[in-house]
C-alpha cells in the first residue's frame, strides 16, 4: 500500500501515512487538545497560560503548514 492509499477494514477506512506525517498529526492533536483546555478555562488566565496558548497556536500553525506542504491537509479536515 502506498502513502495516501486507503483501504476499508471491518468497515473502518484506514489510510497509510508516513511516520513523519504521523508524528505531525500526533503533535497537532496534542496541541489542539491543549488549546481547547486553555480556551475552556473560566475567568482570567493565570500567569503563563496566555504565553502557553500562544505557543500552542504556533504549534498548530506549524503542523498545518507541514501537512499543507505534504499535500495532506485532508487529514485534519482542511481543504
What would the keywords be for this entry?
single chain; 79 residues; two-stranded antiparallel ribbon; elongated
What's the short version?
This protein is mainly α. It has one domain (18-76). It has 2 helices and 2 strands, in the order ββαα.
How much strand content do the residues show? 5-15%
Compressed to H and E, one letter per element, the order equals EEHH
Number of domains: 1
Enumerate the spans where pLDDT stays under 50 for 5 or more consecutive residues: none
Helical amount among residues, as a percent range?
40-55%
Going by helix content, strand content and strand pairing, the class is mainly alpha
Q: Would you mind describing this structure in some detail?
A:
The chain has 79 residues and is mainly α. The chain has one domain. Helix content is 54%, strand content 10%. It has two helices and two strands. A two-stranded antiparallel sheet has the order 1-2. Helix 1 packs antiparallel against helix 2. The longest helix is centred in the middle third of the chain and has 22 residues, at 19-40. It starts with 5 loop residues before the first strand and ends in a 10-residue tail after the last helix.
